[in-house]
Amino acid sequence: MMRAAALPDGQRIGPSLCGGLSMVHYPGFQSAASLPALKSRYEHNTRKN
């Protein structure tokens, strides 16, 4: 986690955008229909390098 100073009145930080390895790591993404394809792609690319 990153700690940040308070924002001035009226300013907000929007939602975070997760993708890539976050989708493979966090359990909240386990129901994504495309997760098996993403895992396969990472496994393939990791073996190559």
The major sheet is characterized as: none
Mean pLDDT: 82
Total beta strands: 0
Terminus-to-terminus distance: 30 Å
**What portion of residues belong to β-strands?**
under 5%
**Portion of residues in helices?**
25-40%
The SS-based structural class is mainly alpha
Spatial shape: elongated
Please write the string of helix (H) and strand (E) elements.
HH
- Spans with pLDDT under 50 lasting ≥5 residues? none
Write down the Rg. Answer: 16 Å
Please work out how many helical segments DSSP would assign: 2
Structure explained in plain terms:
With 49 residues, the chain is mainly alpha-helical. It has a domain at 19-49. It is 39% helix and 0% strand. The protein is built from two helices and no strands. It has helices at residues 21-25, 35-48. The longest helix is centred in the last third of the chain and has 14 residues, at 35-48.
Jot down its keywords.
49 residues, mainly alpha, 0% strand
